[in-house]
Amino acid sequence: MARILICDDEPNIVVSLEFLMRRQGHEVRVAGDGDAALAAVADFDPDLVLLDLMLPGRDGYEVCQALRADRNRTKILMLTAKGREAEITKGLAVGADDYVTKPFGTQDLVARVQRLLGAGP
Amino acid sequence: MVPAWVVVIVSLAYLGLLFGIAHHGDRRAAAGRSLISSGVVYALSLAVYATSWTYYGSVGRAATRGLEFLTIYLGPALAMACSAVVLQKMIRVSKRYRITSLSDFAAARFGNSRLLGGLVALIAVVGTVPYIALQLKAVSSTFRVVSGGPVSTAGVPPYADTALYVALVLALFAILFGTGHLDATERHEGMVAAIAFESVVKLVAFLAAGMYVTFGIFGGFADLFDRAAAAQVATEAVTIGGYGNWFWLIVLSAFAVLLLPRQFQIGVVENVDERHVRTASWLFPLYLLVINVFVLPIALAGLITLGPAVSPDTYVLALQQHSALALLVFIGGLSAATGMVIVETIALSTMVSNSLVMPLLLRPSTRGGADLAARGDLGRLVLRIRRVTILVVLLLGFGFFRISGDALGLVDMGLVSFAAVAQFAPALLGGLWWKGATRNGALAGLVAGIVLWAYTLLLPELAKTGWVPGSIVRDGPFGVALLRPQELFGLSGAGAVGNGVFWSLLVNVVLFVGVSLAGRRTPAETGHAALFVDIDRRTPGPGTRFYRGSVPVARLRDLLARFVGAEAATALVAGHGSRRSASLPDEAEAEPELVRQVETALTGAVGPAAARALVASVADEEPLGMAEVVELVGEAQHLRELDRLKDEFVATVTHELRTPLTSIRAFTEILRDNPDLPAEERGRYLEIMATETERLTRMVNQVLDLARLESGNAEWRLTSVDLGSVIDEAATATAQLFTDKRVELDVDVPAEPAVTEADRDGVMQVLLNLLSNAAKVSPSPGGRVRITLRTDDGTARIDVADDGPGVPPPDRELIFDRFRRGGAGGTGLGLAISRRIIEQFGGTLHVSDCGGDGRGATFTVGLPVPARRR
């Protein structure tokens, strides 16, 4: 049982992520952009953020950096639509713990989430 | 009869005149005042097609086979008159990519395939040497006729044969004017001027011969034909024997006029202005018509007065009774032969050096290749290779003629040569229009075609010389009649030539198409196919497609200097620097564009295969990557303008397409893995999947729409369109959307019609896009969208005003860019497409705010409304 923040601006993708996380018994909160995500982190204190990189306004990298600057223990799993080496490298460099590329396989995503949560703080 | 020494002196004087013309032509070219910049000269030089085969052989053919000789001129006349398009495309491709020979053309089309280039060069040499031999034979035998010697060369030692000296003088000519310098365009203006002059000489001489025979010996055409009828010699000549052959001979010669090495050299490489093709398309057929007018009369006259004891191939000359006229006719024949030999050997020398020798010498895998690439004087080496090639080819021709003796007829051996080069047609002509053609397809077709050619056409000719037992031709190998070369698999009725051409071309085409379809294209092949096929759709200039690597500027310049000289190389590199308004330091890494230019310049000098190898030898290259391939495919689909923004475009397209795909995949797997979901939830997810699938479809369609618009390939049906009625229809079509969003739509259209010239569906598409965007951005519920039509001073103005967040001024142009989203969802392509559609009809599309308070956006379509006649 964990708290999970979903941060993506595509409503239908959010619906699918919500379903997958709830199915695992997690508590879920949704943020539609980078600012909302940072606000939700402060308020909700999630164990893990599913973070899309291409967000309107403050993008995924900035959210990542902001979280890590606070020495936050939250795990970050980035979702990238591009799957390019440079983006993944950059994402991991600013503090993401793992990544999946869109379109993601649901079982793979769930397995990665569980693994990150199991790894402990 | 004319004394032999007179003939020799006049011949030498004639050749001296040719040297003078060529020298003058080269000097004028160097001074920038071209002697050959005219459609007439181009057409005349193309008439190098008419060799001594035409000059003497046509009469020989007419005397034995009747009107069939005409096919050899019908084909080219048709080809030139009807397919100037083909020649123009070949010229365009060759000029753009500095292609200077047939073999380079083949190699470049199929991804710089050295194997293919080498094969084409080899076939060209094998196929043309006998043809060159014929020209020498014609000169040699007519020399003896005019000087009263024996007709046969039997018993004449090689060193006493006129043909040897003719060959040597021609070699000298070809070397002087064909390999004088190494130049990126590989044009030889002096040589072309001399060839055009020769075309005039042979025409005048042949017409003089014909007129003398018709009006001097006989009393005009009527008298000649009457006496031929009385002597009963005309039966054969006026029957049109063996129709089966006709079709194939026309096909063959139509290919030959484009694909013989000398025709490619003159028609494509030496062409100075593409517009000359238009003049040639009527003048060249006319030339062929005129030079054939007297063929039949001369043949009949020969049959009547000389009879079959004299070789019909020498009738033209043997009929002349005045020595001055005989000498003129001999010179005409000499000009026909020398023109062909000169151009053919120059063309072959380029092929042999570019496609056979240089690629072998420059193989990067060998130590020798690297050493050679490091040598300073490669340009001189190339020239030396070409000079040696010219000499060797001519000596081979002489040798072939000496060994084959009198067994070969002019026309027969010429046709065998034609059939050899016709094997290039599927790959080269097909490859100009069919992008799916692959290197392996071309290789398979060419190899099979040439093997069948050798079996069905060359073998029977060789059997005539006694080199091959005649029984193979008569009874088939091992007595198997089905395999008889001239009636392969029992095919009869097409004649020996028709049989050979049919089988070789059939198998060639089938393998070319079949292997191409069955195989996969490499990235380089895909790229080169687009470069050739889409030549007219591509803008010349920046953008290298095949280079990924690094090389310092200095190394590149030094490499180029070895071929074109230090001055030209420095100029090219410096010119590149100044265009970028910065001088290039020697150690700077060369930009791909500079590398491309250097490679193109080298291609002109040594052919594409060697140029590629040379550049590769100085640069550390990486293999072609996925990004380049995506780019190439984009090009192939005519997304020309997208070149500049390719990276962004590819990235954004992938991103945009992945978004709906992500939802679809996620929900598909969710439904699969959770069969126990409540029906309501299932329904909701399926609904999302349907929506996202639609979105994906729409995006794909829009990408295709945009591609069509930007390539200019969209098809519009322009009619008079009443804008008021289109607005009403668009409002009706989007009514449901507005109702769902609880946004109000006001339509304000005046009663007075506003009629513009446009495609109704196109205008409709734009209005639907603007209205649905407006519905999306307006506040829900309670938003209001207003569409108005006003006509003022010849312009109709349609405003679509919403009360959404508006578009900030800096973004007001950006939103019409591809994939620059206005912020509120959508695929990002709609506005880009809309603007392009409206521009097609001479209109404009832009955005402003509503009433200047920054809230809401107004999209305005302006379309011209021509004043209506009352």
TrEMBL record, chain A:
Residues where 4-aspartylphosphate is found: 52
Keyword DNA-binding: yes
Recorded GO CC terms: cytosol; protein-DNA complex
A GO molecular-function annotation: transcription cis-regulatory region binding
A single GO BP: regulation of DNA-templated transcription
Record-linked SUPFAM superfamilies: CheY-like
SMART domains: REC
Domain Response regulatory stretches: 3-117
Name of the protein described by the UniProt record: Response regulator receiver domain-containing protein
Source superkingdom: Bacteria
Record PANTHER family: REGULATOR OF RPOS, TWO-COMPONENT RESPONSE REGULATOR ORR33
Pfam families linked: Response_reg
Keyword field: DNA-binding, Phosphoprotein, Transcription, Transcription regulation, Two-component regulatory system
PROSITE patterns per record: RESPONSE_REGULATORY (PS50110)
Automatic annotation (TrEMBL), chain B:
SMART domains per the UniProt record, alphabetical: HATPase_c, HisKA
EC number: 2.7.13.3
Any GO CC annotation of this UniProt entry: plasma membrane
GO molecular function term, any single one: phosphorelay sensor kinase activity
Lineage top rank: taxon: Bacteria
Subcellular localization, as worded in the UniProt entry: Cell membrane; Membrane
Protein's name according to its UniProt entry: histidine kinase
InterPro entries the UniProt entry points to: HATPase_C_sf, HATPase_dom, His_kinase_dom, HisK_dim/P_dom, HisK_dim/P_sf, Na/Glc_symporter_sf, Na/solute_symporter, Sensor_HK_Regulatory
Domain Histidine kinase: 652-867
Family from the record: Belongs to the sodium:solute symporter (SSF) (TC 2.A.21) family.
Catalysis performed (reactions): ATP + protein L-histidine = ADP + protein N-phospho-L-histidine
The species this protein was found in: Pseudonocardia cypriaca
Record key words, sorted: Kinase, Membrane, Phosphoprotein, Transferase, Transmembrane, Transmembrane helix, Two-component regulatory system
Residues annotated as transmembrane: 6-23, 35-55, 67-87, 115-134, 162-182, 203-222, 242-261, 282-304, 324-348, 385-403, 415-434, 441-459, 501-519
UniProt xrefs under Gene3D superfamilies: 1.10.287.130, Histidine kinase-like ATPase, C-terminal domain (3.30.565.10), Sodium/glucose cotransporter (1.20.1730.10)
Pfam families: HATPase_c, HisKA
PANTHER family: HISTIDINE KINASE, TWO-COMPONENT HISTIDINE KINASE
Enzyme class: transferase
Membrane topology value: Multi-pass membrane protein
